[in-house]
Design goal:
Blueprint lengths: L3 E5 L5 H6 L9 E5 L2 H9 L5 E8 L3 E2 L1 H8 L5 E9 L2 E5 L10 E4 L4 H11 L4 E4 L3 H9 L5 E4 L3 H4 L3 E7 L6 E8 L11 E9 L6 H10 L5 E8 L7 E8 L5 H13 E11 L18 H15 L4
Helix pairs in contact: 7-8
């Protein structure tokens, strides 16, 4: 397997900046790809060891392109996540004035993060989406658009200047990125982990989603992401992408997954990995009473004693 990481390019994306925060990135060749799909396909085709892509934004929610790629096709697994604070700069060709901007571009996920600023400052500008924010900067360099919303760091790379900086509609906006590879044994439990799965119901019935969520709730497992995605099989056919607190080696998480496997048509395990919002070495908050590994073991032992006639 080549010692390389694919990522959503071109050079100068927020994805690249987030990727370079991983210590192991310094020992890999970092290869930009034109889309999330092509970056993940590089892993599936054996061209790259892993791919680094955006999966969730605190303003817009799940990055549907990434979720859909993980739902369909040959299975992949998440190994790491990174959180990156996001603010935008308005990048233009040198000498361009705000009043001269008629067209703007950026990745579609960027638009909800700058919508109010755009309405207040460039109400008549035409928005068109780009494959990534850095690609939008490249298109401005080529003269296709007048301005692009991207990271200020991309200006030098594309010969542009930042006409405005610190642009964001929501304070403390963040994007979550994930390192995705081929399925293998999950990383060891850290005590502050996250488990991702995709669930398909056996059939559509009243309370169906409640039944799925009940497997988590009865075991005291908090959900950090719940998003439905169409399966393509027709209107009303959905699967559910879920991030849950905990690791598959935790008894409560393992039992929840076993329960889901019993009642779902299909369960796709996307990995258990360290949470990026908890510092390394720290442990996530306490579990609810009755849901610790020790309490699961004690309950299992009690059942065994009952079966042996020892009360």
């Amino acid at each position: 397997m080549p010692a390389s990481y694919a990522y959503l390019g071109p050079e100068g994306t927020f994805t690249e900046v987030a990727l370079r925060t991983l210590p192991e990135a310094a020992t890999r060749e970092l290869i930009p790809y034109v889309s999330v799909q092509s970056a993940l396909d590089a892993v599936r085709n054996g061209e790259a060891e892993a791919a680094f892509v955006p999966i969730e934004n605190s303003v817009e929610g799940g990055v549907t392109t990434t979720l859909d790629e993980l739902v369909a096709g040959e299975p992949l697994m998440i190994y790491r996540e990174v959180l990156l604070s996001i603010t935008f700069a308005l990048l233009v060709r040198p000498g361009t004035k705000l009043s001269e901007i008629k067209t703007v571009t950026a990745h579609p996920v960027a638009q909800p993060q700058v919508r109010n600023w755009l309405r207040a400052n460039l109400p008549d500008a035409l928005w068109e989406s780009a494959a990534s924010n850095a690609d939008g900067a490249r298109l401005v360099q080529e003269g296709r658009y007048d301005a692009a919303f991207a990271g200020e760091f991309a200006a030098e790379r594309y010969g542009l200047e930042a006409l405005e900086t610190g642009i964001h509609d929501a304070e403390n906006a963040q994007t979550r990125f994930v390192l995705v590879g081929r399925p293998a044994r999950p990383a060891a439990r850290t005590g502050a982990d996250k488990t991702s799965v995709v669930l398909w119901q056996n059939d559509d019935h009243p309370g169906g989603l409640r039944d799925l969520l009940g497997e988590f709730a009865t075991r005291g497992i908090n959900l950090m992401l719940l998003q439905s995605r169409p399966t393509g099989a027709g209107i009303g056919n959905y699967c559910f992408c879920i991030d849950a607190e905990g690791h598959i080696s935790d008894r409560r998480v393992a039992e929840a997954l076993m329960g889901l496997k019993r009642i779902c048509r299909q369960v796709r395990f996307l990995g258990s990995y360290p949470r990026a919002d908890v510092k390394p070495g720290e442990v996530a908050g306490p579990t609810r009473p009755g849901t610790s590994d020790e309490e699961f073991v004690a309950a299992s032992d009690w059942v065994a004693h009952c079966q042996d006639g020892r009360f």
